[in-house]
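Render this sequence as a predicted structure.
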Amino acid sequence: MGWFLIVIRVIPTIIKLMGIAEALFDDVPDSGSDKKDMVVATIKALIEGASGFTGTPELWEKIDKAVSLIIDAATLFLFPHEDTK
């Protein structure tokens, strides 16, 4: 399975993890990057653990960028910043 299909398959998990991160960091101001780091690290661990997928650093860079873009897009619509509500 190609890296793109892996990323597509974990989108629902990314959204769920974002909700968990929101709850965990609820009282922590300016924690957006911590939330994102938590979600990206968890997704990477899940991909490696669940599928046994091991990729090159270049491949992980592509996956990290794609996951990061998905998080950024989902944040705009599902978890907007307090100032933009």
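Summary. DSSP finds four helices and no strands in the chain. The chain has one domain: 3-78.
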